[in-house]
């Protein structure tokens, strides 16, 4: 009879999230001339995608919401300059995903649907919170066409690229 031991790969999770955070910045910088224009703002959210995949593939990870707070704050400090919005939204989205994870199969279709819903919530509430502090767009049509649509496109493509390697890494972390 095999006894279950607690998950101890928290350092590997932090490293994965840090790499995803760096990739967010690198992709924004390298592809910025195409992704980040006044008419089209598709911001990669690989760190959020990584957090959601950790929720689905590593249910033993108890500190995923804490990681979401920490890396959300780091994302705000390094990339946005508006402290607190990502640090608030990522943990809320991750907490909701934690509560729903038993209903979400580990197939790419369902995890991809979770990513689409999470990115939609993030972009919409990010815009609402930015409006509250005076930095957001005012028109719903502009939100959908200039921010939400491009963000979904960029992140679905990003998810399609990282799903297989990241899922394999997380499954191997679970086994060790």
Summarize the structure.
This protein has 176 residues and is mostly helical.
Please tell me about this protein's structure:
This protein has seven helices and no strands. It is mainly α and 176 residues long. It has one domain. 31% of the residues are buried.
For this entry, give a set of tags:
176 residues; mainly alpha; 7 helices
The figure for the number of domains is 1
User: Overall 3D geometry?
Assistant: globular
Task: Let me know the largest β-sheet.
Answer: none
The fraction of residues in strands falls at under 5%
Write the layout of secondary structure elements.
Layout: H1 10-30, H2 32-35, H3 46-57, H4 64-80, H5 85-100, H6 108-132, H7 140-175
């Amino acid at each position: 009879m095999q006894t279950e031991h607690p998950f101890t790969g928290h350092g590997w999770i932090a490293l994965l999230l840090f790499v995803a955070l760096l990739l967010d910045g690198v992709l924004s910088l390298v592809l910025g001339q195409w992704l980040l224009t006044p008419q089209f703002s598709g911001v990669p959210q690989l760190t959020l995608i990584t957090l959601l995949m950790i929720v689905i593939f590593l249910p033993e990870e108890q500190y995923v919401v804490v990681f979401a707070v920490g890396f959300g704050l780091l994302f705000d400090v390094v990339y946005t300059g508006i402290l607190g919005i990502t640090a608030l939204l990522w943990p809320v989205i991750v907490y909701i995903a934690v509560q729903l994870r038993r209903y979400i199969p580990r197939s790419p279709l369902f995890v991809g649907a979770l990513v689409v819903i999470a990115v939609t919530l993030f972009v919409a509430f990010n815009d609402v919170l930015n409006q509250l502090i005076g930095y957001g767009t005012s028109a719903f049509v502009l939100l959908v066409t200039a921010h939400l649509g491009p963000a979904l496109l960029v992140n679905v493509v990003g998810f399609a690229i990282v799903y297989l390697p990241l899922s394999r890494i997380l499954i191997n972390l679970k086994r060790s």
